[in-house]
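Appendix B, record 7
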Amino acid sequence: MEVVRRRRGEKGEVGEEEKARMAAAIPAVPGAMTAAEVVARVAASGAQHTGIVGFGSLLSADSAALTCPGVRNFRLGRVRGWRRVFGHPAHIFFARGIANPATREIASLCAEPAPDPSQGFVMAAFEVPTSELPALLERGAPPLPAVQPLLRYETV
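Structure tokens (predicted):
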């Protein structure tokens, strides 16, 4: 069983049946690939490792390694022309029971183009074994868009 945060300070166990119910409640995002489609596409490529860019909790090598023990080549960089935004309600937070509308804890972190190309943020780049990709996607990442732009970054 997995322990999840339901409301600030309140924890509860979630069994497999409850996790399946919550996952089924997450609507499809038009133009996005499901986690299963992402895994299938990467597996079909034959790649042994998958490149990941993290800009939230994945900025920590320790946090990334908790989900993916085989993480390698962890490094920090800076992305220019993009900004981090905590302003979008995340339907996955509601489906998993971790949103708290009473305290307005409903926003997820995303990245969007910045109005000023000199703006940017610190990100992490690393690789994980392709076999560990499902655990990373289950961690809470929303479905990935089918086409992701390749971001150039500077090392920090």
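Remarks on this record: Residues 1-11, 142-150 have pLDDT under 50 and may be disordered. Residues 36 and 134 are 8 Å apart (CA to CA).
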